[in-house]
Amino acid sequence: MTALPPAELDRTDPEGAIAAAAKRVSNWGRWGEADVKGTLNLITDDHRRRAATLVRRGRSYSLAQRFDMDGPQKGWRRRTNPVHTMLDTGTDAEAGIQGFPHGMGGADDVVAMPLQCSTQWDGLGHIFDHGRAWNGRRAGEVVTSLGDGVTGIETVAADLAGRGVLLDVGRALGEDVAGTGGELPDGFAITPEHLEATIAAQGASSEVGPGDILVVRTGQYGRALRDGWGEYAGGPAPGLSFTTADWLRERDVAAVATDTWGFEVRPNEFDVAFQPLHQVVIPNMGLFLGEMWALEDLAADCSGDGSYEFLLVAAPLPVTGAVGAPLNPIALK
């Protein structure tokens, strides 16, 4: 079963819907004309201090998928899986060919990969709306062949840490919509009503408010672990409905991450469209999006103890001028 978009969403007019939504949720100028952090301004020092008190049992969970050649990428827009090779090895050490004195040996390695090939953040220079980047800047003045010289991911290297909230929509609604008991079917559009229903089912610890980092589990990653990657990278997927843009703005979330390749539902909810929700929330709202997060272990813990909030430390690798970056998010409970 696929959730249908509301009647007011005209499938034939993505251009009009995007323009209207962008106007409603725009944060341009909210934090000043020079701002480069967008919604991460909502994560205050006090917010982080309160988030730190959520660590009670000392349990930690990595929310990163593996970075290796067996990943989901299939070459779309030259996105490949990481290529990891060794520069020095134990066999070199045994052969005594490394040139170190007194019998010392060592190993070194190197990796080559697109920055958005596994668990990652979309930065504010990743998507434009009619040639405009975050805060109304001209796209060509923000990102050039030298990289993002204004909102490069390094500008927020210390900001993505605070209260994380898991909305396990797959577990809350999976049985009702697909009979799967934990997974949403591909093409399922998660509406504001579904998010609210999940909060109601999970309880008070999953209330979402200003400055929170929202983590949404659909169950698609768990299905990929069981059945193989298939079309995980770029294919059909459950995800957030275009209609959630206003909900995200009203809640003033700082960032949103999901366990899918593209964050929003695929196919998208218009007859001809490509990632329309990205086009609204990144350049207009200034919202950071996380994709391909591994949420199965965390979700099991949250379901077990009934608490869906945690301290989340999710700093991107500060690659200068990058429009997105890999990371190893850690949830602490």
From TrEMBL:
SUPFAM superfamilies: Putative cyclase. Signal peptide: none annotated. Pfam families: Cyclase. This is Cyclase family protein. It comes from Isoptericola hypogeus.
